[in-house]
Write a structure and sequence with these properties.
Oligomer: heterodimer
CATH topology of chain B: Rossmann fold
Largest sheet of chain B: 5 strands, parallel
CATH superfamily of chain B: Cobalamin-binding domain
Helix content of chain A: 40-55%
Number of strands of chain B: 5
Number of strands of chain A: 10
Radius of gyration of chain B: 13 Å
Shape of chain A: globular
Helix content of chain B: 40-55%
CATH class of the largest domain in chain A: Alpha Beta
Strand content of chain A: 5-15%
Order of helices and strands of chain B: EHEHEHEHEH
Number of domains of chain A: 2
Largest sheet of chain A: 5 strands, parallel
CATH architecture of the largest domain in chain A: Alpha-Beta Barrel
Strand order of the largest sheet of chain B: 2-1-3-4-5
Number of domains of chain B: 1
Distance between the termini of chain B: 11 Å
CATH topology of the largest domain in chain A: TIM Barrel
Largest interface: A-B, 46 and 35 residues
Chain lengths: 551, 133
Amino acid sequence: MENAKSYWETNSLNKVLNKFPERKKTFVTGSNKEVNNLYDPLDLEDYDYLDDLGYPGEYPYTRGVQPTMYRGRLWTMRQYAGFGDAEESNKRYKYLLKNGQTGLSIAFDLPTQIGYDSDHPMAHGEVGKVGVAIDTLEDMEILFDGIPLDQVSTSMTINAPAAILLAMYTAIAEKQGIPASELNGTIQNDILKEYIARGTYIFPPLPSMRLITDIFDYCSQKLPKWNTISISGYHIREAGSTAIQEIAFTLANGIAYVDAAVKRGLDIDTFAPRLSFFFNAHNDLFEEVAKFRAARRLWAKIMKDRFGAKNPKSMMLRFHTQTAGCTLTAQQPDNNVVRVTIQALAAVLGGTQSLHTNSRDEALSLPSQKSVRIALRTQQIIGYESGVAETVDPMAGSYYLEKLTTEIEQGVKDYINQIDQLGGSPKAIEKGFIQREIQNSAYQYQKDIEDKKRIIVGVNKFQSEVEEPMKDLLKVKPEIEKRQVEKLKKVKEKRNEKVVRKNLMELKKIVSTEQNIMPAILDCVRSYATLGEICDKLREVFGEYKESIKI
Amino acid sequence: MKNTRIRVLVAKPGLDGHDRGAKVIARALRDAGMEVIYTGLRQTPEQIVETAIQEDVNVIGLSILSGAHMYLFPKIMELLTEKEATDIVVIAGGIIPTEDIMELKKIGIKEIFTPGTDTNKIVKFIKENVKIA
């Protein structure tokens, strides 16, 4: 084999190279990893099929978490949506469900995510902008009006106040007569990446971790089908990390959550099966597919070897994927449909459990209904027309892909070792290590584009002279804020103020103890205490997080 | 002695947490020889204007991707007028639709850079629009 290769190099390759040099000196992946001209069995010499890949649905799950993968059922097509007030978002959800979407994904506005009511001074101008505004249980009742909660799975992108939104969801299920044990869905509930990359933190790390373990504990007893956390690399990648950093920092955060829960005395095989993940799908098709497979394999090993998990479900890395928002261009926005297609394909070839495809106009504004439909249709074309869903893990065995999978896994392990030495992910965040690593990659990426080492079609090459403006962009009506504030006022007038005060005081008492906080939060939301009032009680005990900024 | 380097405040108004762009720009401006102050997240218009005046900056660069620009930017421009600090050049970037760009330029924002802008273009713009003695 080696002889044959060197023969090929001398007799075929070099002859051509002498006459026609390659188009670049070095070739790199989307994350700046060098790529060889060719991969062959020599690259996979230490490779053992059963140990490294195995069969789908079996340890180490490299080929997927289910034995049948998409032959059994396609991934859940789940478009992240929400804007304005609950009425408007409810209409968008019904539209998406009618068009064949199979799960809901709720976007909340920033005041909701940061624990402010719509009438808070910091909320001015932000109400209903990047998602739906939720102040009280009444908003959630409207949001899910006519949507039976036992027939959908609902993902909620909510972190610092996750316990409150989960309590509200449970409370409306109660009203629909559906027991909590029947509820399917996910809360993001991943605070560590908020400090790293996304910015919607409220409380300091320690009490935040307590809220998270309270949720793990509560759900393992009351909501056994609920995904209690979605440990997210998505935003880390959007902030500019490489593929390796995305997986490394996400798994390091995962380790921190598992550590915290184990320290709290929870049984690993009770809570770990409900952990889920959320990754980004960027442009480099092979690197992304390898990334997903490497993440799956490494997490299985971590759970088995580091934490001693016994339940196979604890070792399975199940994940949601969203295509990379940061790759969308404001220039020639229709080109984004093609980018999204490649990224979605990577997610599917990587074995994702659910997928959100971005809309072409998202570098300009929130997506219009028409753009959202194209994005959903993109997934349906991949699922029903492309043939890639007809067999399990179809890229396995590609010399390049397997080599890349192994290299990414190794790169991730190196980072995790480094983070362990710093004392784990919360400490590494406190020291600014993780943020700095990401900022450096982001700056390098930008420089590479400006130096034309990295080509972005329509941006630094193949630009159009005249840009046709995108039509029908979605605008959130400015009167939404006023309407929402008035609605909030009415709820406050209607509710039993005495009960609200009593429940909030009781909550404050519980927060100061080591008791699980969930039942007290449930009582608060049932009595129509507002999200802001509940968060204020927590702020009084926990304090607020202040970021330390370095550029 | 008067400082001869251009001073820039890179600011994140409102609740938006997307700071990749702001941080990349801050670093690019610094690499281009400017003095850069970065506010961090969740700044009110009042805080931004106050910092800009205290730090005696020549430029404020606002970054926002949450869609709240039509509320927050005019507020900042009003406050600058109120404090007689309209000599500060205000530029902005983020997810900002074309029709809003025209409105915002009318109220005095000098330039708005959307995703995909070359940082050199921003450096050049600042150097052309800020004259320091």
